[in-house]
Design goal:
The protein is mostly helical. 74% of the residues lie in helices and 0% in strands. The chain has one domain. The radius of gyration is 20 Å and the shape is rod-shaped.
Length: 124
């Protein structure tokens, strides 16, 4: 429990949450690029015929995307733990503390949807 009675504690927790949001987004984007770049290399190698299976980059890309989604969810759980330790005086009146949570959960959900889309496209 915080004894500072200062709203800067909340703002520091939000900055940390947003840093994890950027990390999650970077992992998702990097995973997508790796996955798609492997497909491009495979298409070039097979002289524009449709491949039937993906290689190593597919699994690395999917792993990065799942890691990005997990990072977003775990950061929300950590942020909520910090919020439980704050006193009402440390949260400015009328301040929306759940916006960062919503953004991270939406990012995680979209990451999982995109991962499923890429996985289902290969296994269709």
């Amino acid at each position: 429990m915080s004894d500072l009675n200062d709203p800067r504690v909340l703002f520091a927790a939000e900055r940390t949450l947003m840093a994890w949001t950027r990390t999650s987004l970077a992992l998702l984007a990097f995973g997508f690029v790796v996955e798609r770049f492997g497909l491009l290399l495979l298409l070039i190698q097979m002289q524009h015929t449709m491949p039937t299976e993906r290689g190593f980059s597919y699994w690395v890309g999917i792993t990065f995307m799942l890691l990005g989604s997990m990072t977003a969810v775990i950061s929300v759980l950590q942020y909520r733990k910090v919020l439980k330790t704050l006193r009402p005086v440390e949260i400015p009146e009328g301040y929306a503390i759940n916006f960062g949570i919503f953004i991270n959960l939406a990012l995680a959900a979209l990451g999982i949807i995109l991962t499923y889309y890429l996985w289902a496209g290969v296994n269709a």
